[in-house]
Amino acid sequence: MGQFPITQNVTVVEGATANMTCRVDYNDNTSLQWSNPAQQTLFFGDKKALRDHRIELLRATSQELTIRIGDVSLSDEGLYTCSLFTMPVKTTKAFLTVLGVPRRPEITGFTKPAMEGEEITLTCSTTGSKPAANIRWFRNDKEVQGTQEVNATGKSFTVKSSLKFLVDKRDDGVAYTCGVEHVSLSSPYTTTEVLEIHYAPHVEITHSLIIPQEGQYFKLECISKGNPRPEPVLWFKDGGDLPDIERMIVEGRELTITTLNKTDNGTYRCEASNHVGTSSAEYTLFVYDPNALGQHGPDHALIGGVVAVVVFITLCLIIVVGRYLARHKGTYLTHEAKGAEDAPDADTAIINAEGNHVHAEEKKEYFI
Fold first, then answer.
1. Gene3D superfamilies, from UniProt (predicted)?
2. Are residues 185 and 221 in the same domain?
C-alpha cells in the first residue's frame, strides 16, 4: 500500500494552544517528523529536537505524531511540515494561522465640557489585531459612520476611526459608543463617551390661571433649561424690581402673588443666566373684575338667538333669488321663427319664415 502523511490546517487565537497532528494510514515502522516554518525539527518520532518549553509531545506511534504548541504568538504562524522518512521522503504541509486579538478600544480627542457650536473630534483606536479589526460607531442606539484608518504594526494592525461634528444642546448627555469587531471575539469590545455640552439658557413662563381675577391666588413659574443649570432665576415687573414683596413671593423658580388686584397689572419678566449667556421670557398680566365677567359664563340664550337670525336671513335670501331666476327665464326666439309663430296656418308660416331670409343682416337672437 502507498504511504503518505495527512495533516490539517489549524487556526488559533494568540495566547492559546495549537495541536498539530500528522497521520499515515499505513506505516512499516518509518519515522514521522514535525518541522516549523524555519525548517527546524521540532520532534523526530518521540524525540524532541528543539529546546522550546512551549512545545511538547502528545502522541507518537508508527501511524501518528501529535505535538502541542502552548502560548502561541503571532511569530508562530506559518507552514509546518510533516515528513515521512521513506525513500524518497514524503512530506505534507499544514498552515498554522494565529489570530491577533485586538486590545480594548479607547476614545480620545474630547475634553469635557464642550461649548455649543464647537467642532469636536472623537477618535476610537485599537491595536494588536490580526487581521485588522473593524470599528463601528453608535450615537445612543443609532449607527453613525466614521472615517477608518488601518496601519500595519509588525505582524498586527492598529485601527483608528474618527467622528468630526459640531455640537449643540441636543448633544448634551448623548452617548457615543465605539465597538470593535474581530473574528477572534465572540462579542465586540465597546467603550462609551458621554458628551457634556454647555449652552445658554432657554426660558419659558407658565401661569396657574387662564383668566386671573381680583382676590385670587396666582402663580408664575420660570422654566429654564441650560447647562450649567441657571441658578438662581430673577423676577422683574415692568422693567424694575417687584414692587410688593409682601404679596409677591419668590421661591426658587416660582413667583406667587397671594391676592390679586388691579395694581398687579403689567409685564413680568423672568431672567436666567449661566457662564454661556443670559435669556429671558415675559408674561403680561391683566387682572379681571369678577363682577364684570358674570357668574354663569357666556349667555347661551343670546348666542342661540344670533344663530336663529342668521339662519332666517339665509333662507329668505335663497327664496328671493329663486323667484327672481324663475321670472326671468323667458322664451328664446329668433327672427326666423318670429314670423312663423304669428301665421294663421302652416303655409303662411313657411312663407313668412322664408321672407325673413332676405334680410340676413337682421338675423339676431334675442330674448322677449
1. Immunoglobulins
2. no
**Domain end among 226, 257, 285:** 285
Say if 307 falls within a structural domain. no
Please give the residue range of the domain that contains residue 124: 106-195
Please give the Cα distance from 7 to 311 (Å, whole number).
Answer: 101
Angle value at C-alpha 203, between 199 and 282, nearest 5 degrees: 145
User: Looking at the 3D structure of the chain, how many domains does it have?
Assistant: 3
pLDDT in tens, 185-204: 999 999 999 999 999 999 99
DSSP string, 209-278: -SS-BTT--EEEEEEEEEESPP-S-EEEETTB--S-TTTEEEETTEEEESS--GGG-EEEEEEEE-SS-E
pTM of the complete model: 0.66
Can you tell me the distance from the alpha carbon of 3 to that of 1, in angstroms, rounded to the nearest whole number? 7
Which residues neighbour 19 within 8 Å (Cβ) at sequence distance 6 or greater?
10, 58, 66, 67, 68
**pLDDT at position 28:** 77
Chosen domain end from 69, 98, 127: 98
How far apart, in whole angstroms, are the C-alpha atoms of residue 307 and residue 320? 21
Q: Work out the burial of residue 99: count CB atoms within 10 Å of its CB; fewer than 13 is exposed, 13-18 middle, 19 or more buried.
A: buried
Q: Which amino acid is at 297?
A: G
Q: Are residues 168 and 188 in the same domain?
A: yes
The residue to which cell 326671468 is assigned: 328
**Confidence grade of residue 323 (pLDDT, cut at 50, 70, 90):** confident
